[in-house]
Design goal:
heterodimer; A: mainly alpha; 6 helices; 0% strand; globular; B: mainly alpha; 3 helices; elongated
């Protein structure tokens, strides 16, 4: 049963990623991205990371996807990829090279840490476990994150302000 | 229970598809979405490894990755909008202003 769930979710993840890459219209790409992010959130659920699944849906599928759709609305793209491609050879070469890259990454990850026996103990994935870590061991990075978000906020306003 | 190596393999495939999107597409918005795919693949691998080692530390790291991704998307889209205002075009092949 869990294998069936994983298979369906994996197919959704890979299929929506392929749709994002192949579809010419960026608004279709944004919708495929939402499907992809939601499927990854469901995969988090199967890994017992319930808090992260909720955050994934709220932050990624909510905020970031809406931001993308807004940007597409403002920019009205679609004509960029119609003309002749000056780098067609390089782009065709990229496809087999990425295949080689994928195999290499899979081999490295496989040899890294997954060869030993599993711990078996279920990881607490709720708000409590993650929150306890964030406010004890990772307190300093957590505070730095707030500065980072503030910097992004100010930076975006400075970048997009029209000169009066 | 599905073994964690399956998740890690899926994460490798997802990351490679993100790389492919960055390399093949010409629209900066789609390139940005492909970068999101790569970040998601890294998140998936982190959660799988955390599950494997029996700690919640991987999930804490994913939390930070999400924060960085949110900041990155906001700043990146602002840069794209600014470039579009200056150039009225939106193809990465034409942006060679900083190329020597």
């Amino acid at each position: 049963m869990t294998f069936v769930t994983f298979g369906i979710l994996a197919a959704l993840v890979v299929g929506s990623a392929a749709g994002l890459i192949l579809k010419r219209n960026p608004i279709h790409g944004a919708l495929f991205l939402v499907v992809n992010l939601a499927s990854v959130a469901a995969l988090f659920l199967t890994l017992h990371a319930e808090f992260l699944a909720a955050v994934q849906v709220i932050v990624y599928a909510g905020a970031i996807a809406v931001l993308f759709v807004f940007a597409i609305m403002v920019l009205i793209p679609g004509k960029e990829e119609m003309g002749p491609d000056p780098l067609r050879g390089q782009r065709l070469l990229a496809v087999p090279l990425v295949g080689v890259f994928c195999v290499l990454v899979a081999l490295v990850l496989r040899s890294a840490t997954l060869s030993g026996p599993a711990r078996g103990a279920a990881v607490p994935g709720g708000v409590e476990a993650v929150g306890r870590l964030l406010f004890t061991d990772y307190l300093f990075p957590f505070e730095v994150t707030s500065v980072l978000l503030l910097a992004a906020l100010v930076g975006v306003m400075a970048l997009t302000k029209r000169k009066a | 229970m599905v073994p964690e190596s399956y998740y890690v393999a899926l994460s490798a495939v997802l990351f490679s598809m993100g790389v492919l999107g960055v390399l093949v597409r010409r629209n900066p918005l789609v390139i940005f979405m492909s970068i999101e795919l790569m970040l998601n693949a890294a998140n998936l691998a982190l959660v799988a490894f955390g599950q494997r080692h029996g700690t919640a530390e991987g999930q804490a790291l994913v939390f930070f990755v999400m924060c960085v991704a949110a900041a990155e998307v906001a700043v990146g889209l602002a840069i794209i909008v600014t470039i579009f205002r200056l150039r009225r075009r939106l193809s990465v092949d034409e942006l060679n202003l900083m190329r020597w």
